[in-house]
Specification:
elongated; 10 strands; five-stranded antiparallel sheet; 30% helix; alpha+beta; Alpha-Beta Plaits; 2 domains
């Protein structure tokens, strides 16, 4: 993803799927959270939940996708307009991860399955129920940070590749992998997409290799940072 597509440099993502159920006046609200990166994958997730709960009356949905969280969808699936999908979307979009200063969760889909318990909840009751189902599920979720990283390729002699990789890792550089070719090895390095960070890495490589090698720009990727 290029810099032109997104101004964001980092955002939160789910580190795993979540299932959580609440019951309100005998109605069951089962929330499923999943990580998705496109409309198509979000709809596939929804279809899987629908398949597991064919007898449920409602399968309401919301999702937020993209580094800038510009892609947002919601659906009431037969509930009164504005009582399900929008509150679910608000719960996703306004959620703040522990330790973060502001909401940044994205690439997340929520599906809330409702089994009607025979008691009408009213519009306000539905809004609270669907919002609470998502909020409580988020409270049980684990999260990771997705960071926009500049990828640099560094060619190394076979005899030096292992040492260079170990020394770079020891100084906190993310080494995404090493590919061994016939004549040399290529290390793939990731650094925060910032000119200062890149300059510091290039200086570190120059010192490590005694000026014998320099990294080549290999573009930008979104990388999940270790928890």
């Amino acid at each position: 993803m290029s810099d032109e597509i997104s101004r964001a440099t980092r955002y939160g993502v789910l580190a795993g799927d979540v299932e959580h159920e609440i019951e309100i006046k005998r109605s069951r609200f089962i929330c499923y959270l999943g990580r998705v990166e496109s409309d198509e994958v979000a709809r596939e997730f929804v279809d899987l939940v629908r398949g597991e709960h064919r007898l449920a009356r409602h399968h309401c949905t919301a999702w937020v996708i993209g580094p800038d969280r510009m892609l947002q969808r919601s659906n009431d699936d037969g509930e009164p307009s504005g009582t399900a999908g929008v509150p679910m979307l608000d719960a996703l979009a306004q959620f703040t991860r522990p330790g973060e200063p502001s909401p940044d969760l994205s690439d997340a889909v929520a599906v809330v399955v409702r089994y009607f318990g025979g008691v009408l909840l009213g519009a306000g009751g539905l809004v609270r129920a669907y919002s609470d189902a998502v909020s409580q599920a988020l409270g049980r979720a684990r999260f990771a940070t997705r960071q926009r990283m500049r990828i640099l390729a560094l060619d190394a002699p076979h005899a030096e590749a292992g040492r260079w990789e170990n020394e770079l890792r020891a100084t906190g550089i993310d080494v995404l992998g090493t590919d061994y070719g016939d004549r040399s090895a290529r290390l793939r390095l990731a650094v925060v997409d910032d000119e200062g960070e890149r300059g510091a890495l290039e200086a570190r490589i120059a010192a490590l290799t005694q000026g014998a090698a320099a990294p080549v720009d290999a573009g930008v990727e979104w990388v999940d940072l270790p928890a």
